[in-house]
Design brief:
The chain has ten helices and 15 strands. It is of the alpha/beta class. The radius of gyration is 19 Å and the shape is globular. Residues 48-272 form the Xylose isomerase-like TIM barrel domain.
């Protein structure tokens, strides 16, 4: 409880004066979190998302509603679609549809969440091809006022030279055309330190997925884990506070809660409460 400026908990007291919140950005949500809700009603789901205090989203067109109508419904609720997802193969073939959707929705970022590769065998050739494709697509998107971000998924951290194939992709993509979105879980799962990786590449990071990994789960380079291993922030293995502080230092501006667990409706309020409670 709060008594005359001191927080009393577990028999201890600590001054609360002058403490600053670690997380001060708008609350963002990845639309995939509500994949089980959209089919039951898009407007009702948007109402639920708004009720959580969400003012930014990452997603894109939703089946069952025109993109133009979706924009109207988002505007009605004061929610901005900051970023939309794009399929790698579709984007490489043509960026036209992605650009069209981004402009309708007002999105300034396009996120690619996956690089095609043989399961369990992400190679240097895959990384080389991805870097070339991202440079090409990123240039086209930039010419249309949109920033391309690659969302790491864990399989890219295969050791290579003095680093990983993820390092290769960063170093071989043009910062003018290609940026990155960090997924906290998919950085930690393959054995990386999210805070250190944020420090390493600084302003190359533009977006972030907020998610945590269940305690006791051991990671690998597969880029996959049961969805039940997604837990509310602060209840898993990741040092969320350290990651958020590093992200702020790197200049990340947009953060999206992504909870793939079937218990997302229960866990999201826990996540929100936790990140709001974090103090410097």
């Amino acid at each position: 409880m709060l008594v005359t400026g001191f927080l009393l908990a577990a028999g201890t007291c600590a001054p609360t004066f002058g403490q600053k919140a670690v997380y001060t950005n708008p609350i963002g949500m990845q639309a995939y979190t509500f994949r089980g809700s959209w089919p039951n009603g898009i407007e009702a789901t948007l109402d639920t998302i708004k009720s959580l205090g969400v003012t930014e989203m990452e997603g894109g067109p939703i089946q069952g509603m025109t993109t133009e109508e979706l924009r109207k419904q988002l505007d009605k609720r004061g929610i901005k679609m900051v970023s939309i997802g794009a399929d790698y193969a579709a984007l490489v073939k043509s960026a036209d549809e992605t650009i069209k959707n981004a402009k309708i929705l007002g999105a300034k970022y396009v996120m690619v969440p996956w690089i095609p590769h043989q399961k369990g065998n992400f190679t240097l050739e895959n990384a080389k091809q991805a870097a070339a494709d991202f440079n090409k697509a990123g240039k086209i998107l930039k010419e249309n006022g949109i920033t391309l971000c690659y969302h790491n998924h864990g399989f890219e951290f295969v050791p290579y030279e003095d680093g990983t194939l993820f390092d290769y992709i960063v170093k071989n993509t043009n910062p003018e055309y290609v940026s990155f979105e960090m997924d906290m879980l998919w950085t930690f799962f393959p054995g990386q330190d999210p805070a250190k990786l944020l420090d390493k590449y600084g302003s190359r990071w533009k977006l972030m997925h907020l998610k945590d990994l269940k305690k006791g789960v051991k990671g690998d380079l597969s880029g996959g884990t049961p969805k039940t291993n997604d837990v509310a922030l602060g209840t898993g293995q990741i040092d969320v506070k350290a990651v958020l502080k590093a992200a702020k230092k790197a200049g990340v501006k947009h953060y999206f809660i992504e909870d793939e667990s079937p218990s997302y409706l229960k866990q999201i309020p826990q996540t929100l409460s936790y990140i709001k409670s974090l103090k410097e």
